[in-house]
């Protein structure tokens, strides 16, 4: 992750900036030389402690072949939104298993609850359908990792999984302390097995570069040296806020905000927040967000819309911690975050339905964003307000 082009800067910032007397880093040995070089500059003492895997991971010689061969504890890995629910339906139609789902665009708290359901032996959700999000901080009782494909779209192109990606995902099988004595990893199709097996035995490429985002002080120094350069020239992702009457530090904070600019709704949310902040000084969530009657998403495309809306609510919360005097609807944003997404998963059979769950006490994300920005066909909709 340290060398990731889009997210690596966050790990570098944590490595160099966490206020702690002692910092423990866990990861692939391929990152060690670069980390050692970086920390020479800061005069930190670095101690490298190698760890071996505490439970065996066995590459299987036979592909799964069919979902009729699924067992309790299996995790099917895919990278397509449509495939998550397609595979889940196929597995559950067999009548032997219920599935939890875990993928990156689910809200973190929802991912965690889905993982907990899969781990809980008292609940009948005994198979997991997941993306590579399972490799990020989730402890799971997985018997076998089953790759449905060895390719993914990375935002630019469809490509084969890298050696580190394959190892990270495969390694989630039978983590130490799980209920399975041996973990296995295989593929859905036989023609994917050679890449899987070769990757598990290959060394990871040594990391040569780490992501880095300029600090505000560096941006300020640059702006002083180049007074005629706009913020867009200083930091390219600032195109949306460059022309707004905001201070350099305010623009910098907007650029650091957790927003997916490739997502139309999220990008529009950031734009409207920045414009309101610049023009009014106070950004009321209620001006662009109105809780209404409870409407559970009933299609996958509608689910995608509400995942985007959840990202906008997360963005508002993040900004409320940085602009305390401007983003004042923190509690409203926090209370509205995940209800529809969880109800959608419940409707699809990805959520238990205890009698204690009462939908009548929940607000919804109906009539969501303002007419100015969101009354349009975002994600191929019918022109309705999102």
UniProtKB/TrEMBL annotation:
| The keyword Mitochondrion appears for this protein | yes
* Keyword set, alphabetical order: ATP-binding, Helicase, Hydrolase, Mitochondrion, Mitochondrion nucleoid, Nucleotide-binding
- Name the Gene Ontology biological process terms: mitochondrial RNA 3'-end processing
Q: What's a single GO MF annotation on this record? A: hydrolase activity
Domain of life here?
Answer: Eukaryota
- Keyword Cell inner membrane in the entry? The reply is no
Q: How does it assemble?
A: Homodimer; in free form. Component of the mitochondrial degradosome (mtEXO) complex which is a heteropentamer containing 2 copies of SUPV3L1 and 3 copies of PNPT1.
Protein name in the entry? Helicase C-terminal domain-containing protein
């Amino acid at each position: 992750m340290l060398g990731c082009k889009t997210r690596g800067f966050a790990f570098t910032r944590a490595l160099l900036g966490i206020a702690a007397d002692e910092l423990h880093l866990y990861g692939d040995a391929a990152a060690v030389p670069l980390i050692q070089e970086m920390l020479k500059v800061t005069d930190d003492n670095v101690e490298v402690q190698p760890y071996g895997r505490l439970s065996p991971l066995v590459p299987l010689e036979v592909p799964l072949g069919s979902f009729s061969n699924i067992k309790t504890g299996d995790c099917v890995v895919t990278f397509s939104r449509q495939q998550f629910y397609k595979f889940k339906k196929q597995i559950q139609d067999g009548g032997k298993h219920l599935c939890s789902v875990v993928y990156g665009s689910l809200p973190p708290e929802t991912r965690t609850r889905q993982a907990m359901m899969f781990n809980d032996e008292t609940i009948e959700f005994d198979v997991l359908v997941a993306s590579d999000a399972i490799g990020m901080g989730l402890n799971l009782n997985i018997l076998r990792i089953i790759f449905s494909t060895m390719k993914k779209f990375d935002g630019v192109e469809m490509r084969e999984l890298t050696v580190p990606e394959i190892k990270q995902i495969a390694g989630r099988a039978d983590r130490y302390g799980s209920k399975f004595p041996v973990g296995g990893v295989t593929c859905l199709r036989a023609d994917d097995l050679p890449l899987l097996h070769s990757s598990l035995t290959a060394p990871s490429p040594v990391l040569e570069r780490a992501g880095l985002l300029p600090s505000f002080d560096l941006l300020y120094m640059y702006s002083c040296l180049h007074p005629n350069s706009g913020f867009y020239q200083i930091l390219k992702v600032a195109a949306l806020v460059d022309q707004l009457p905001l201070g350099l530090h305010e623009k910098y904070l907007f650029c650091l905000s957790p927003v997916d600019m490739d997502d139309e709704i999220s990008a529009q949310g950031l734009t409207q927040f920045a414009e309101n902040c610049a023009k009014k000084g106070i950004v009321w969530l209620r001006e662009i967000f109105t809780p209404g009657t409870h409407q559970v998403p009933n299609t996958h495309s509608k689910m995608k819309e509400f995942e985007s809306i959840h990202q906008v609510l997360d963005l508002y919360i993040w900004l409320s911690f940085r602009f305390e005097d401007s983003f004042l609807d923190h509690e409203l944003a926090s209370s509205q975050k995940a209800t529809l997404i969880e109800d959608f998963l419940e409707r699809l059979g990805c959520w238990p339905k205890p009698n204690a769950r009462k939908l009548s006490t929940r607000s919804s994300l109906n009539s969501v964003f303002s007419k100015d920005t969101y009354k349009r066909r975002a994600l191929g909709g019918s022109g309705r307000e999102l």
